[in-house]
Design goal:
2 copies of one chain form a homodimer. The first copy, chain A, has 5 helices and 11 strands. By secondary structure, chain A is α/β, with parallel strands linked by helices. In chain A, the strands form 2 sheets. In chain A, strands 5-4-3-6-1-7-11-10 form an 8-stranded mixed β-sheet. The first copy, chain A, has helices spanning 23-26, 36-42, 50-57, 91-96, 110-118, and strands at 2-10, 14-16, 45-49, 70-74, 84-87, 103-108, 124-130, 132-133, 138-139, 148-158, 161-168. Helices cover 20% and strands 37% of the residues of chain A. In chain A, strand 3, helix 3 (50-57) and strand 4 form a beta-alpha-beta unit. At the A-B interface, strand 7, strand 8, strand 10 and strand 11 of A face strand 7, strand 8, strand 10 and strand 11 of B. Strand 8 (132-133) of chain A pairs antiparallel with strand 10 (148-158) of chain B.
C-alpha cells in the first residue's frame, strides 16, 4: 500500500482561509494540463475529513467527483451522500488496516495528514503551491516537531501553480 | 528601487528550527548550479535582522560573503564586523528612504520581511524549498492576514531544492 497527499496550498502553507473557504484557490485560475488525471487513475481509496467533505458536497454532482475510488470520510455523523462512506476512529489505525495493495489518496485536511506523517505512513506528497499569501488560515502541515526528509522527484509549473512531487526517503 | 526576498525554507515554511539553527538546510546538500550568482550580482543593498547576521558572523570570513553590496543589520547593538552596518528603526521607513534606483535583497528574517510585505514593498520573491518537514521553527511568512497575490514567473529544480520565483502582481 502507498499513501499519498495530493493537494493545493498557498505559498504560506494554508489549505484554506480561517473560515475554511477556498476563494484564493478559485481566483488563481485553472489550468487544463495537470497531472491530476494520471494521479487519480492510480488511486483506489480516498480519505478526507469532514470539512473537506463539506466542500466537496457543496459542489455540483459530488458523487461524480471521485467516481472510481472508495471514498472514506472521517466523521462522527452521517453523510447522506451517495459515493462516500462515513468512518470513525484514528486515521493511523484505519490506514494500517486497509488492504496492502491499495493506493490511498489523503485529500485533506490537516487532521488526517498530520497523524499519518507522524506515523511515517505518507509515501508521497504532490503539493501544488498557489501564488498567494493569506497570512492566516488552516495550515496544511500540523504534524509534530520532528525533522522528516523526503526526496524531491520533480518540479513542474501548471499555469500559476508550482507543483512539487516528493517521495519518502 | 526593487526589493526582493531570496532564501530557503522547509516544505512546511520554516526559515530555521526553534533554536534558530539551520542543520536541516546543511543536511539537504548543496548544488553548484543555482541562480544565486546572477541574483546577487544585481543587488546593491542587503537587509537582515540580528539573528540572520549572527548566523553569517558564525561563518568563515563573514566580510567576504556579501562583498559587493552595502549590508545593513537591524539591531539595537553594535556589530564589530567589517562590511556590515548597524541600523535601527522601522524596516518599512528604512526601505522607503533608500535611493530609488537600488536593488535591495531582504536576506531575513521574518521580522524584516513581514512589515515589508504588509506595506506592499516586496517586488519579488525567490524561494528555495528544501525537502524537509520540521514541524516547528521560525516561520518565513508572518505578515498580517490579507490575501496578497503574486505572479509565478518560474519554477526550477536545483539538486534537492525546488525554486519558485515570484514577482508582484
Amino acid at each position: 500500500m502507498s499513501v499519498f497527499f495530493y493537494g493545493c496550498v498557498t505559498l504560506d502553507g494554508y489549505l484554506a482561509d480561517k473560515n475554511h473557504r477556498l476563494d484564493w484557490l478559485h481566483e488563481t485560475g485553472g489550468t487544463e494540463d495537470t497531472g491530476y488525471e494520471d494521479f487519480y487513475r492510480k488511486m483506489d481509496i480516498t480519505l478526507m475529513g469532514r470539512r473537506t467533505f463539506r466542500e466537496i458536497q457543496g459542489m455540483e454532482n459530488p458523487e461524480e467527483i471521485y467516481p472510481t475510488t472508495v471514498n472514506y470520510v472521517f466523521t462522527h455523523g452521517t453523510l447522506e451522500q451517495k459515493g462516500f462512506l462515513p468512518v470513525t476512529g484514528d486515521a493511523e489505525d484505519f490506514v494500517r488496516n486497509l488492504p496492502k495493495e491499495k493506493n490511498v489518496w489523503v485529500i485533506g485536511g490537516n487532521t488526517i495528514l498530520a497523524p499519518l506523517l507522524d506515523a511515517g505512513l505518507i509515501d508521497g506528497m504532490i503539493v501544488q503551491i498557489a501564488p498567494v499569501l493569506l497570512g492566516a488560515g488552516i495550515p496544511l502541515f500540523t504534524q509534530k516537531e520532528a525533522a522528516m526528509r523526503f526526496h524531491l522527484d520533480k518540479v513542474s509549473q501548471y499555469g500559476q501553480f508550482a507543483e512539487l512531487a516528493y517521495s519518502r526517503k
